[in-house]
């Protein structure tokens, strides 16, 4: 299913992607030669430290242990016999393989001036050429970057504007219709020439030779005498289509991917229509990977919400055939591991995104939706999403995309961070960064998705919520507010909040007595207001008194109750100030 979806995506984007047998390749350095084949200099085609200029060249070959040369471009070991091991003799067989490829192309077009120049280059003494190369000003950079993904070399005739490897008159020279080894392709269902090995597709953190599909030899996977690709027949055209689509989705400026930790998630719609394009754009913006900062942080998020609401309501037309795909990949030795795959009808996907919006919506939020990075960052020590436990991003993505309960690890990590940041300094810092609101939203969303008999937690403070944990949190917020107005301090929060959230009975008697002393410093009117509010909450506490212990779920409700009541008191004060000013 994954390969077929990528194959179809190539068909959808065929006009903008390389034709069969071609690919966009990053080539970091060019060997500039003259018409006589003499080495003149290296030319740097890197854009920055991570990427280089791309050229449409013949598709890179899938390699095993046997040396195979690419078409007029390759690594330093193949092009001029040098590797990071600095072992010329060890690279000789790679260099000879590349020279044989050049010889084949030259024999196919002996009158072509460009291939003639490259052919002449290889008639010179290889060691002498290498010595000249090492004297070039760019050699230290080349030697330092031999293992980068852009560490490929091709030729440029001095004064020309196109590299040899992208010359149209040379690209088709060795292509031939070969009908040997034709079988029915498991991707397209059509008969075609079957590949023995597949194309390497590097993802962040993987080796350069990593593949999403690979075949082992003599490792127990062969059957009925078949080897390598014959075990799972994929035609050359299908393999080209899915690998080209995958590389297109993985490109550095792709707006169809996001990275969390060592996971790479790709997403795309099945059709090139308005609903599909809007879903892709909205999904990218929803995760907060915009290129520019907007004056209004809500602008794009609100637009995303409108897009998915329009898809689900039918305002943006979709059909039952319209689907949305999500592919999660992770590096795994010399292979690429598929850690997540979802194929969802577009309308159902919009429904699940809308539900996530609703679950995470909470009063006081700067924006109505917290990006995935914000959610994960809010439950880590340093606020970095990359620091979360390895499996949490996958679990969170799955819960959102499949409409399942949010991961328990997310909830427990959230509770742990709240309890670790009770000091005034840490609490204020977390508040400024938006973590307090995000954590309250996480707890609300987690608890509401659980299938239990507890009352649903609302977006705003709910006076009808009689859960004992929620009530204890509300009461603690009132006592905290009394101290804040009386002494401009939050010492009861620093000293007692963690205990109050876990063992209310052991703490509340003490802090209720403290609040009486704090109330004496308030005006009579304000004191009466707080006493009425305290009594309103305490009237709903069980007749047996405060709970001796709160379960972890009820501890979560405690913190949401605290947050809700704080927001209510804050909003009330704002209204009172506005009324007084008027």
Tell me what the structure shows.
The chain has 582 residues and is an alpha+beta fold. It is built from 21 helices and twelve strands. It has helices at residues 2-12, 76-80, 88-108, 113-121, 126-134, 139-144, 168-171, 236-250, 274-286, 299-313, 346-360, 372-377, 392-402, 408-420, 424-432, 435-449, 468-487, 491-502, 508-519, 524-538, 552-581; strands spanning 22-26, 29-33, 39-44, 54-58, 73-74, 153-157, 182-184, 191-193, 257-260, 263-269, 323-332, 335-345. Strands 3-2-6-5 form a four-stranded mixed β-sheet. Strands 9-10-11-12 form a four-stranded antiparallel β-sheet, with helices on both faces. Strands 1-4 form a two-stranded antiparallel ribbon. Strand 2 (29-33) and strand 3 form a beta hairpin. Helix 14 (408-420) crosses helix 21 (552-581). The protein starts with a helix and ends with a helix. The model is unreliable at 290-297 and 578-582 (pLDDT under 50).
Q: Tell me about the largest β-sheet.
A: 4 strands, mixed
Helix/strand structural class: alpha+beta
Average per-residue pLDDT, rounded, comes to 87
pLDDT < 50 runs, ≥5 residues: 290-297, 578-582
The Rg value, from CA coordinates, equals: 32 Å
Please count the helical segments.
21
Strand order across the largest sheet: 3-2-6-5
N- to C-terminal separation? Answer: 65 Å
| Overall spatial form | elongated
Helix content: 40-55%
- The count of β-strands is 12
So what's the oligomer here? single chain
Report the portion of residues in β strands.
5-15%
């Amino acid at each position: 299913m994954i390969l077929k979806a990528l194959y179809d995506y190539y068909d959808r984007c065929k006009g903008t992607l390389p034709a069969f047998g071609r690919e966009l390749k990053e080539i970091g350095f060019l060997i500039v030669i003259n018409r006589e084949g003499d080495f003149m200099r290296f030319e740097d085609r890197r854009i920055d430290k991570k990427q280089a200029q791309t050229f449409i060249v013949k598709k890179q070959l899938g390699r095993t242990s046997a040396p195979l040369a690419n078409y007029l471009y390759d690594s330093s070991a193949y092009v001029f016999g040098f590797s990071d091991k600095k072992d010329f003799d060890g690279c000789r067989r790679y260099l000879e393989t590349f020279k044989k490829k050049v010889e084949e192309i030259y024999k196919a077009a002996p009158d072509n001036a460009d291939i003639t120049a490259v052919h002449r280059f290889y008639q010179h003494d290889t060691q002498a050429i290498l010595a000249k190369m090492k004297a070039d000003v760019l050699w230290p950079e080349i030697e330092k970057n031999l293992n980068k993904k852009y560490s490929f070399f091709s030729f440029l005739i001095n004064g020309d504007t196109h590299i040899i490897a992208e010359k149209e008159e040379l690209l088709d020279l060795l292509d031939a219709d070969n009908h040997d080894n034709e079988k029915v392709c498991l991707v397209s269902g059509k008969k075609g020439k079957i590949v023995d090995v597949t194309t390497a597709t590097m993802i962040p953190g993987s080796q350069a030779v990593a593949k999403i599909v690979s075949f082992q030899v003599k490792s127990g996977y062969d059957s009925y005498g078949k080897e390598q690709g014959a075990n799972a027949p994929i035609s050359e055209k299908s393999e080209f289509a899915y690998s080209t689509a995958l590389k297109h989705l993985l490109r550095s400026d792709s707006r169809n991917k996001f990275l969390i930790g060592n996971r790479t998630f790709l997403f795309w719609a099945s059709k090139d229509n308005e609903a599909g394009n809007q879903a892709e754009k909205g999904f990218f913006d929803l995760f907060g990977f915009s290129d520019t900062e907007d004056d209004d942080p809500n602008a794009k998020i609100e637009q995303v919400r409108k897009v998915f609401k329009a898809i689900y309501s039918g305002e943006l037309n979709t059909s039952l055939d319209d689907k949305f795909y999500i592919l999660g990949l992770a590096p795994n030795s010399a292979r690429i591991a598929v850690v997540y795959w979802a194929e969802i009808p577009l309308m159902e996907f919009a429904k699940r995104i809308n539900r996530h919006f609703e679950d995470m919506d909470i009063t006081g939020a700067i924006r109505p939706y917290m990006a995935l990075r914000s959610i994960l960052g809010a439950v880590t020590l340093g606020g970095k999403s990359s620091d979360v436990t390895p499996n949490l991003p996958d679990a969170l993505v799955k819960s959102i995309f499949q409409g399942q309960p949010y991961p328990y690890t997310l909830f427990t990590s959230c509770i742990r961070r709240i309890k670790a940041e009770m000091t005034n300094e840490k609490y204020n810092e977390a508040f400024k960064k938006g973590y307090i609101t995000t954590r309250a939203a996480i707890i609300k969303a987690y608890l509401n998705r659980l299938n239990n008999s507890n009352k649903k937690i609302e977006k705003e403070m709910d006076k009808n919520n009689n859960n004992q944990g929620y009530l204890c949190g509300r009461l603690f917020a009132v006592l905290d507010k009394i101290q804040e107005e009386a002494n401009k301090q939050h010492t009861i929060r620093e000293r007692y909040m963690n205990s109050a959230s876990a063992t209310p009975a052991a703490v509340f008697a003490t802090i209720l007595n403290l609040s009486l002393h704090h109330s004496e410093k308030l005006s009579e009117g304000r004191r009466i207001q707080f006493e009425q509010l305290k009594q309103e909450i305490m009237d709903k506490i069980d007749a047996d008194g405060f709970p001796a212990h709160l379960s972890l779920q009820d501890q979560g409700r405690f913190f949401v109750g605290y947050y809700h009541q704080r927001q209510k008191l804050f909003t009330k004060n704002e209204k009172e100030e506005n009324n007084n000013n008027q």
